[in-house]
Amino acid sequence: MADAQSFNNSYSWFNSMTQTLKIPLFVLPAGIFPTVEEPLRVFEPRYKQMLDDCVLDEKPFGYVTHSSDVSDVDGWTQPGAYGVLCNVKNVEEQGTNLLFTANGTSRFEIIDVVQAALPSMPFGDIFPTVDELVEQYHETSPDGKLYLQANVRVVEEIKGEISAEDWSGFLHIWAQHIVDINSILRNDGLSIEEMLLLLEEEFLPYDSSSLWQVAHAVLDDDRYRQQALRSSDCEEVFVILHDSLKMKNAQLNFIRTLNDQDD
User: Fold this and answer.
1) Averaged over 152-179, what is the pLDDT?
2) 11 burial class (0-12, 13-18, 19+ CB within 10 angstroms)?
3) Predicted TM-score (pTM) of this structure
């Protein structure tokens, strides 16, 4: 398995030759953020082929959420505009499944999508092998793949910094939000002090890694996630985090009002 430096060297080669990267895409309902690691399981032939290509060619893949604004192409869900390059780590076989860890690195913007060589097909409970599917398109599209690919532009690392006071203040607001959720669920055993201590142990002191880790935990709305991924300054992401919590708190207040009426 290639290390991070090998992947960085690959990025440099691609950029010097073409100014873009051509990468495989892993399109899922939710995305990921830089520095985040996420365990994944693949069983479809297209993603088994993708994983093999990434490992053998020592290259990353693009972890990207699906787009709700673009129609499917040949039955395949299309990606959103922004995603995160991921290294492949800890590949293991578990029966017919492949388990691995996606290690988020740099953000990217999609320039154009390269569609899969075959349309989406219902397979039922038994999937054909990768080789069986490749035979269906190899003569007409020898360079084709079962998975989506894209030409992408790597986005620069986020600039700026959040003050220690502002960051601590946000963690306090987040801790209160979590405690409020537990209260509505009738799980009142967690105090604000205990929750805040847990968050501070995990996300203090502030750095860009903490910012992305918190964004991954807090932002569950695709619109907010895409806004964060295209942000150039950490203050932009910080505002998005606040907006997301405001929306969540408004929803909690509405639920609390309904519960009070029922009581």
Assistant:
1) 96
2) middle
3) 0.87
Query: 177: which 2 tokens?
Result: 């939000």
The candidate with the shortest Cα–Cα distance to 60, out of 30, 32, 94, is 32
**Residue among 61, 27, 34 nearest 156 (CA):** 34
Domain that includes residue 10, residue range: 4-154
- Per-residue pLDDT for 184 more than 90? no
Residue with token string 């290259």: 59
- Pair 25, 47: CB distance under 8 Å: no
pLDDT tens digits for range 32-76: 999 999 999 999 999 999 999 999 999 999 999 999 889 999 999
Q: Last residue of a domain, which of 154, 179, 201?
A: 154
Average pLDDT (125-144) is 94
* Residue 261: per-residue pLDDT: 63
Can you spell out the DSSP letters for the chain? Answer: ---HHHHHHHHHHHHHHHSSEEEEEEEESS---TT-EEEEEE-SHHHHHHHHHHHHHT--EEEEEEPSSS--BTTBPPEEEEEEEEEEEEEEEETTEEEEEEEEEEEEEEEEEE--SS-----TTSPPPHHHHHHHHTTT-TT--SS-EEEEEEPPPPB----HHHHHHHHHHHHHHHHHHHHHTT-TT--HHHHHHHHHHHH-S--HHHHHHHHHHH--SHHHHHHHHT-SBHHHHHHHHHHHHHHHHHHHHHHHHHHHHH-
Indicate whether 105 and 196 sit together in one domain: no
